[in-house]
Amino acid sequence: MLRHFRSAVPVLAAWVLSLSSGAAPAATSFRNPLFAGGDPWITRVDGVYYYSASQCGVADVCIKHSRSLAGLAHAPWIGIWNHTDDKAPNAHDIWAPELHHIDGRWYVYYAADDGDNDHHRLYVLVADRPEGPYAEADTGLPHGALAEASGHWAIDPDVFTAADGKLYLTWSCTDHADSRFPQRICLARMRDPLHVAAPTVAISTPSESWETRGKPIQEGPVGYTRAGHTYITYSGSASWIPNDYAVGLLALAPDASPLDASAWRKSGPVCGPGSVVFAPSPDGRQWWNLYHAIERLDCQPAYRCRDIRMQPMHFDAAGAPVLGVPAEAGVALPLPSGDQAQTHEP
């Protein structure tokens, strides 16, 4: 670390001065894990990082926010939505909520069911402020259900803008009304944040060994565009089996339609632990990968022991993510560039 400073003497002097003035020395590093949880989602709007989750202990859907990326570790959970009817189709098994800011409004896309996993479908909440109040969106269906052409079992919705400038929905799907395998990656174009405009297209099916451990599964898709190219990351294999989750990458051929399934190319695994999402450092000079992992291989099912971690990553010249080797838990990592890790206040 001393190579970042001209001399260790001024650093030591500043540390002594801070103690004499009653102020704690500024943090220069952090350690993983940040906090317990799985299926991370983060977005940054006007310099504030917003992290969304379910099963946080204070509400069905929660957020935390901070101007410091590392500061999310200590930011309190804020409950933003609870179901009101235990018999509703979106009252149970609320999974992987994603908070998105689109055209000035805030949307939470999530999967839920009525207590039976075979009935999992996609839903949307909407609000004018990130902290809410949130309401079930007016999608034309009860409880803010998000209609897509197949009507099949569905989890892990994500919306993103592709290289063609249009808004798309991607999610983990099956060929059935229930949860029979395989789980694949589906895609549809959206007319607006609440309505799907085009037929559902299955763009990828688990076929590789790293996607079929336990069960043939592709889930947790996240789409993004970089350097004029469109990508979708996703998690492969069964989440309940220790040490078997992996991350795959789908890349769209240049100038191809995202709805052309033959134009997507699969590669991977690009990382070991699953469910990746990328965020810039506070000063925009770095990119960071947030993901979930487990420390114990004896946890059954494995997803009950997940925690959230982050580490620096970068993109190659074509915009594909280069994630590196996951750092061990407890290892001190330098703070993200421009990150003071002092406050969670927006």
Q: Could you walk me through the main structural features you see in this protein, from its secondary elements to its overall organization?
A:
It is a single chain. The chain has 346 residues and is mostly beta strands. The chain folds into two domains: 1-30, no CATH class; 32-334, Tachylectin-2, Chain A (5 Propeller), CATH 2.115.10.20. Helices cover 4% and strands 41% of the residues. It contains one helix and 24 strands. It has one helix at 8-20, and strands at residues 29-31, 35-36, 42-45, 48-54, 61-66, 78-81, 92-102, 105-113, 121-127, 135-136, 154-161, 167-173, 184-192, 195-196, 201-204, 218-226, 229-236, 246-252, 264-271, 277-280, 287-293, 307-315, 321-322, 332-334. The strands form six sheets. Strands 2, 20, 21, 22 and 23 form a five-stranded antiparallel sheet that branches. Strand 16 and strand 17 form a beta hairpin. The two termini are 30 Å apart. Mean pLDDT is 90; it is low at 1-23.
Task: Describe what is shown at a glance.
This protein has one helix at 8-20, and strands spanning 29-31, 35-36, 42-45, 48-54, 61-66, 78-81, 92-102, 105-113, 121-127, 135-136, 154-161, 167-173, 184-192, 195-196, 201-204, 218-226, 229-236, 246-252, 264-271, 277-280, 287-293, 307-315, 321-322, 332-334.
CATH superfamily of the largest domain: Glycosyl hydrolase domain, family 43
Shape: globular
- Give the oligomeric state of the chains in this entry, treating copies of one chain as homo and distinct chains as hetero: single chain
CATH-defined architecture of the largest domain: 5 Propeller
Name the helix and strand elements from N-terminus to C-terminus, one letter apiece: HEEEEEEEEEEEEEEEEEEEEEEEE
Radius of gyration: 21 Å
CATH topology heading of the largest domain: Tachylectin-2, Chain A
**Average pLDDT score:** 90
Return the structural class.
mainly beta
In percent, how helical is the residue content?
under 10%
Uncertain stretches: 1-23
For the sheet with most strands, the description reads: 5 strands, antiparallel
What percent strand? 35-45%
